[in-house]
Amino acid sequence: MKNVMTAGAALLLTTSIASAGGIDRTGNPYSVLFEDGNYAQLSFSSVMPEVSGDYPATFGGGSTDNMAESYLSFGAAVKYAVTSDLDVALFITQPYGADASYEAGAYTGLAAEWNSTQLSVLGKFKAAEGVSLYGGLSIVQSDAEITIPAALASAAAGAPTPEYTAQASSDVQVGYVVGAAYERPEIALRVALTYESGVTHEFDTEEAVGGATQLESETEIQLPQAVTLDFQSGIAEDTLLFGSIRWAEWSVWEVRPAFYEGATGDRVTGIDDDVVTYRAGLGRRINDDLSVFGRITFEDGTGGVASRLAPTDGTTSFGVGGSYTMNDVEFTGGVEYALLGDATDSAGVEFTDNSAIAVGLTVGYNF
Prior knowledge:
InterPro entries: OMPP1/FadL/TodX. Its main location: membrane. It contains three helices and 22 strands. It has one domain: Beta Barrel (Porin), CATH 2.40.160.60. Helices cover 6% and strands 58% of the residues. The chain is mainly beta. It has helices at residues 2-8, 150-157, 258-264; strands at residues 39-50, 53-54, 71-81, 86-93, 98-101, 111-128, 131-148, 164-184, 189-196, 199-209, 212-223, 226-236, 239-248, 254-255, 269-270, 275-285, 290-299, 315-326, 329-340, 343-344, 350-351, 354-366. Strands 1-3-4-6-7-8-9-12-13-16-17-18-19-22 form a 14-stranded antiparallel beta barrel. A three-stranded antiparallel beta sheet has the order 2-21-20, with no helix packed on it. A two-stranded antiparallel sheet has the order 14-15.
């Protein structure tokens, strides 16, 4: 059932804007630790969101047009079997990100970008028959910038104000990962519980109004801790049930540059609630080389006021794909369609009937 088990993880890198308002992009990639022998993997995904809203009459009506930009993501991993009981692995991912830009109506010029790269080094130790423990360190690098046009900056400050910009230079922080798993290979059963610590970035931030620097200071932004329960089990010959439940403490994430908060008494953006994401799917092996799979992902909405930079609330997505093995190389491709939950921001702009399409390709090699 190896092909089916590999296929079960294939779409992990293809869902993006569907998670935590578009900030949480890759989820948990650590299943590579459970591949047999030595293993290397490359993953690519392209995400094409369509997120637009309707302005209220007080803002002149009309549409915001699409404010969520398409983007590409990349991931890589390599795992080496040191002994029969000890494995080590290296992961490179782009776990968090935002690409928002308004080009129509009252919000024209409002834009934000968040980039991140994470390097993780983990080890897995077989503690007893069927039981393994794993853990290691993660190094997270992020940078960000935001632009608020004059009309919105004036509304936030309560007085006529030129365009506001804030640029957070690159910052690197270190977190950790710990987990445990139970396996019964004869029925393709695996249950794994993983804890990922949060980190707090300390960005050197330059804030400017009308192009003139107002303040250079340090802005602290927390990235969430998370707990993920992954599971899989054979339920019939050549058929695998798989899924996960992931809790992430996104309520700690907010952006409060010092000058902006002093002028407005508010934050630039943030997420008010923690996020729980549920995934479930089925994989089916067609023959020794080919398997197919399908997956459903659900993230409940909170009903709170939406951020203008991430104006969705919850998601339901559907993914399908297949995996083909040629010699020692496995090619896995998938496509996922996400229905993004309706949301309303503090100005009464209503974002409804939005969606995202993601396609992904993973190439794995046993050596």
